[in-house]
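STRUCTURE REQUEST FORM
Protein name: Phospho-N-acetylmuramoyl-pentapeptide-transferase
Source organism: Pseudonocardia acidicola
Requested output: structure tokens
Priority: standard
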Amino acid sequence: MRGVFVAAGVALAVSILLTPYLIRFFARQGFGQEIRAEGPASHKSKRGTPTMGGVAILLSIWLGYGVAHLLTADPISASAMLVLFLTTALGVVGFVDDFIKIRRHRNLGLNKTSKLVGQLLTAVIFGILALRFANARNLTPASDKLSFVREIAVLSFGAVGFVLFSYLVVSAWSNAVNLTDGLDGLAAGTSAMVLATYVIIGFWQFRNSCAITSAAGCYEVRDPLDVAVVAAAAMGGCIGFLWWNAAPARIFMGDTGSLALGGLVAGLSMVTHTELLLVVTGGVFVVEALSVAMQIVVFRTTRRRLFRMAPFHHHFELAGWAETTVIIRFWLLGAICAALGLGIFYSDWLTASAGL
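Status: completed
Returned output:
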């Protein structure tokens, strides 16, 4: 348990203290954000704001996790390392995307094919390795069975199916967080809430692990406590970054941060066996992604726009809402979704532990 607090504290401190240096460095290098021409007029003033701040989040996650293990001497787990690999690899894809945008002075970086290949390779490697590294109880970091709060025994993918499923999950969540990252602090704040739920979920699964107790309702998860340490480090990193990213933002996380965080929550859902629960917990990300999909479908079929602009948060800006109003209300929705997800998780445990 001490490792969870250490990871969160160290990541928080690193993110808060490192980000100002990145702001100055990126500003000197001219690494400024390009703005969508069709976006809200109020966003034009943000052009040139330093981007690629996701570097601070990634470094804080690694340092928070590393220091926690140095101080506690707890073993490093396969589950945690796979999630960190997934997060970092997608962060690299996002970094390349951001760098191309900056060098070409446009709001388009990697083309769709290049980004797809990057996500595909990362997800396939994760999916293959996640079904390996069985421990003494023959538990691997992930399972080839679909999970809500626990594994749904009748829904098994098999090894090949799981790799394909991994790509679907990783691609969906990395793109969903990326689409949400359009207002100051929106993605960072919402991600921190989702990650906080995974700190609790991981710790609860550890306290009620079948490796410790054979009581009804125990969890068959390989490395829940170490996964909670990763989630705590990421939560601390997001909160620390939010100090500088909150409106008016002095730095943006860019695709470096948003793709990494999307991969992170996707990885956490798979190693905690809660893939479908994440749809509830990360409800804001789901709505943002759905708004884009619905906008495209409706426009292509009727030639009319369902929303003033997608993703969904821009619809409210164009309706006259102040940016901070949209952000705070979406944060409130994020908190409600996170609380609802935790409520479902705990309700399942109560039901299972009572043998119902």
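Reviewer notes: The chain has one domain: 2-353. The longest strand covers residues 151-156.
Form closed.
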